[in-house]
Design a protein that fits this description.
Oligomer: single chain
Helix content: 55-70%
Shape: elongated
Distance between the termini: 34 Å
Mean pLDDT: 80
Largest sheet: 3 strands, antiparallel
């Protein structure tokens, strides 16, 4: 493929540039990131050779990177979760996947959302604002009814006192049910209730492999916004 065509088709955006700036990604590491993006589909496993990348660099800039510097910029991408190493064959050949930019956002947003929920709960208790408490209680009851129905439809049943699950955000219960089915459902999971509880508690859908599987399955559908309303 001609170089100009590769540049045109590269799914690189201003958000990628902003991520590099925010996390102090070096120009060389950014170049490696872009090169890896051209080696296959995003979120799909590829087996690139850093030696091939260095040959490409040598042609482009007239000089290849040193072994230590090449390893340094590769490690920088790993450190910032841009790439996930699946298997290492040698110092220069890996099986890995390049994560989509969307994947780099949810962990932070989920933590911020939890913090906001915690602060909101604390403020309502401190101020003893009755209307806020009543509104929160109504929302929990609403969640409980919807979540109970979703779980019953999936064949998974919880007693009404299991509020950790029933009063969880509706999209989290939906994600937990999807994760349950992705893991083999009733055929492979002997304790579905325990799986759902653990999934919600640990937010397993944010784990790299799980998130990538969800992204491939729902990323281009309208359901994605329902599953990840925070973005």
């Amino acid at each position: 493929m001609p170089e100009n065509s590769a540049l045109i088709n590269l799914p690189w955006t201003e958000e990628h540039e902003a991520f590099c700036y925010q996390h102090h990604i070096t120009p060389a590491a950014k170049t490696l990131w872009q090169w890896l993006m051209r080696q296959g589909e995003i979120s799909s496993e590829i087996e690139p050779s850093l030696a091939e990348f260095n040959e490409w660099v040598a042609k482009a800039r007239g000089k290849a990177y040193s072994h230590n510097y090449l390893k340094k910029i590769f490690d920088q991408l790993v450190e910032h979760r841009v790439i996930q190493v699946v298997k290492q064959y040698s110092w220069k050949i890996f099986k890995l996947l390049v994560r989509p930019l969307e994947w780099l956002k949810p962990l932070k947003k989920a933590r911020e959302k939890k913090l906001q929920n915690h602060n909101s709960s604390y403020d309502s208790q401190a101020s003893n604002n009755k209307s806020v408490v009543e509104g929160s209680t109504q929302q929990q009851h609403s969640n409980s009814e919807v979540n109970s129905e979703l779980l019953n439809e999936a064949g998974i049943h919880f007693d009404s006192e299991v509020i950790e699950v029933l009063e969880a955000p509706i999209h989290e219960v939906k994600l937990a049910i999807i994760m349950f089915n992705l893991r083999g459902g009733f055929e492979k999971i002997s304790n579905p209730e325990g799986f759902i509880r653990g999934c919600i508690r640990g937010q397993w859908w944010l784990h790299p492999r799980n998130y990538n599987a969800l992204l491939q399955k729902y990323g281009n559908s309208t359901e994605w916004n329902e599953l990840f309303p925070s973005g």
